[in-house]
Structure formats: C-alpha cells, structure tokens
Task: structure prediction
Amino acid sequence: MARKARNPQRQPVQDRSRQTVGFILEAAVQVFEAHGLAGGTTARIAERAGVSVGSLYQYFPDKQAVLNALGEAHVADAGARIADLLARIGTAAPDLPALLRAVVETALDLHADNPVLHRLLYEEGLLTPDLRARVEAMAADLVAVVAALLDRQPEVRPGDRRLMAWFVVQTVEHFAHRLVIRPPAADIGAAGAGELVHLLHRYLTG
Result:
C-alpha cells in the first residue's frame, strides 16, 4: 500500500521558524544515526534539536512527517546537484574520462553528504512514491544527456548510446551506494572513484 505523504502542519515563514525546522531536521538525522529508525522518537529528536516536543509538533505531526521532510530536502538537493552537473558537462563537452569522473564524483558526493539518511530513504523504503518518481525522472534526464555526450565521443565503441548511458548511470548509482553507504575496507574506498571511472571507461571503449 502506498504511503501517504504527510507534510509539516505549520509552514515556516519567518527566519526563526525556518531555523527551527532546520534544527529539527538536522537533529533527526543525528538521532536516527544514534538510535535507528525505531528508536528515533520525536521526543529524542526534540531534545537533540533543543526544542520542546510541542514545538516540534507545530511543524511535524509525527515522525513520518519528519522523514518526509528529510526526503523532500534530499531530493531537492539531488536535483540541484544533477542540474549543475548537466550544465557543466553539457557546456564543457569534456573528454570521456573527464565526463565519467564528473558523473562519478557527483554521485559519491551526494551519497557521502548524508549516508544515514540515504540508507533510511532507499534501503528501508522510506522514500515516498512521489519522491521516488522524481528521483527516477532525474535519472532519466541524466541518461538522456549522457547518451548525447557519448555520441560525441569518438573513442566510444559502436552500440546503442542510450543503453550504454543507462548502464553508466545505474553502475555509478550502485557503486556509489556501496562505497559510501556500505563502505568496504578503507584502501578500497579511497581508490573507489578512480577504479569506477576505469571500469566504465573500459566498458564504453571495449
């Protein structure tokens, strides 16, 4: 059954209200990291944020509403980063290694900023259907741009550019998740970006 999104009860208009909401959301991530989803109660979130539970409930009716707000912020951030990436690689028309590194580093940075939240939203299925649809739409836009860029790369082997771009985007997402959310040994993680770029380069050039 699809989860119905709950929005904050009171929309923060004034700077102080927006600051309070920011404190609550930042505290929520810290509490979920320390206590897990089940132990991340609204009381603990309010205490960590330095506000009363009543103040928290002015903005969020329950814990699910807090999670939904975190998901909304995460997807908005992802959209901004992908838009910036598309602008950079679309304008510069980089060579193939530079193109791949830009895609890989954007994905790694996005995952690394908040691995606990990323794990909650994706591994534990807390991303709402609407937000998941927005994420899929962003991924589709990225595939289309990468496919067009691959078509301009003379070293890319013959083949379906859109299919290749889809595999690039999906591979980057998978390994970014593994490298950041479920990190391997430190020496592997440190070399991960370069190895992923090398893997994709070999795949695309044959």
